[in-house]
């Protein structure tokens, strides 16, 4: 038996990269289907070789998480990309993307691209708010290859997906960190005219034997109303130290008295921007639920 990872699946065949680096074309053993488990990209598996480059998947190692769009298992981290400018950073959108990533129990890192356009010090602003929240924040200029090595070192030995709004430079970055596939890059105006192309099958691109990136941007669906209002607090990582210290155990950290989270925000221990984002998103989720 050989251990490997499924990097691609096409009509019943799975392409498994085994530890020594070879790619083996595999069929799945019938038993998975009976158990309602279908192997998917990202699955870590044990295979039995039947020929030099053909095999059978015998066992799927339990998944640590499962992302639906794109369909990928075992994601270690999401790289959330925004640009200093063109388009401007929408902080609520950044917070919502982070919430969605936290809800999947995936680690997020924040990459601020287009540093050549940073005349308003947006990188410093993002860094000061989100580093305090526990995130790693890096800057890149994908056109000039600046910061790309720093990003690459953060990807090492992990499976990563990219997320972020259209036009921030995800595909441009993607093309700088690997040269196996070439993603289409373009400015927003020409894209709108041409209509959008979406990849349905996820594929992992190997940067080295143990480092993979998913070829489609994840977290495109930003409806976060599936989150229960009372669970939203846990998606703000920096609240963790204060939750439970409030006067009321059911505290939503909003209008209650004796709230440790609110106090921390007012004392600057939690960024006031993040606390305000929490309130804004909490009210939005509550309002959406009332409408249903
Ligand atoms: N000035 C500047 N422009 C950049 C940089 N990185 C990418 N761009 C440009 O930004 C535009 C959009 O880049 P893409 O890589 O297509 O953006 P994307 O995030 O993949 O967009 P979607 O595929 O629509 O989600 C292109 O015209 C790029 O050349 C950068 O660091 N600085
Ligand atoms: Mg793109
Ligand atoms: Zn509270």
From TrEMBL:
Binds 1 zinc ion per subunit. Its EC number is 3.6.1.-. It comes from the Bacteria. GO terms for cellular component: cytoplasm. It is found in: Cytoplasm. GO terms for biological process: ribosomal small subunit biogenesis. CDD domains: S1_YloQ_GTPase, YjeQ_EngC. Residues 64-222 form the CP-type G domain. It is an enzyme of class 3 (hydrolase). InterPro entries: G_CP_dom, NA-bd_OB-fold, P-loop_NTPase, Ribosome_biogen_GTPase_RsgA, RsgA_GTPase_dom, RsgA_N. GTP binds at residues 113-116, 164-172. Its cofactor is Zn(2+). Its main location: cytoplasm. Pfam families: RsgA_GTPase, RsgA_N. Keywords: Cytoplasm, GTP-binding, Hydrolase, Metal-binding, Nucleotide-binding, Ribosome biogenesis, RNA-binding, rRNA-binding, Zinc. Monomer. Associates with 30S ribosomal subunit, binds 16S rRNA. Belongs to the TRAFAC class YlqF/YawG GTPase family. RsgA subfamily. One of several proteins that assist in the late maturation steps of the functional core of the 30S ribosomal subunit. Helps release RbfA from mature subunits. May play a role in the assembly of ribosomal proteins into the subunit. Circularly permuted GTPase that catalyzes slow GTP hydrolysis, GTPase activity is stimulated by the 30S ribosomal subunit. This is Small ribosomal subunit biogenesis GTPase RsgA. The gene is rsgA.
């Amino acid at each position: 038996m050989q251990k490997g990872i499924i990097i691609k699946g096409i009509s019943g065949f799975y392409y498994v990269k085994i530890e020594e680096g070879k790619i083996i074309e595999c069929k799945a053993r019938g038993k998975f289907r009976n158990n309602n488990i279908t192997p998917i990209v990202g699955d870590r598996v044990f295979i039995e070789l039947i020929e030099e480059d053909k095999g059978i998947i015998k066992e799927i190692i339990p998944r640590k998480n499962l992302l639906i769009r794109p369909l990928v298992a075992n994601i270690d981290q999401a790289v959330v990309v925004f640009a200093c400018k063109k388009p401007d950073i929408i902080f609520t959108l950044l917070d919502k993307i982070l919430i969605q990533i936290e809800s999947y129990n995936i680690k997020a890192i924040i990459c601020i691209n287009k540093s050549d356009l940073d005349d308003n010090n947006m990188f410093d602003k993002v860094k000061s708010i989100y580093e305090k929240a526990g995130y790693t924040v890096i800057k890149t200029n994908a056109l000039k290859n600046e910061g790309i090595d720093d990003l690459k070192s953060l990807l090492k030995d992990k499976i990563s997906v990219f997320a972020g709004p259209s036009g921030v430079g995800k595909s441009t970055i993607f093309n700088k960190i690997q040269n196996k596939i070439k993603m289409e890059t373009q400015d927003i105006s020409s894209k709108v005219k041409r209509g959008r192309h979406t990849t349905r099958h996820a594929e992992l691109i190997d940067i080295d034997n143990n480092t993979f990136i998913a070829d489609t941007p994840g977290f495109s669906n930003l409806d976060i109303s599936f989150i229960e209002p009372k669970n939203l607090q846990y998606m703000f990582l920096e609240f963790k130290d204060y939750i439970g210290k409030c006067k009321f155990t059911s505290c939503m950290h909003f209008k209650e008295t004796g709230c440790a989270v609110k106090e921390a925000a007012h004392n600057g221990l939690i960024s006031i921007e993040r606390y305000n984002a929490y309130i804004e998103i909490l009210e939005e989720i509550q309002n959406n639920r009332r409408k249903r």
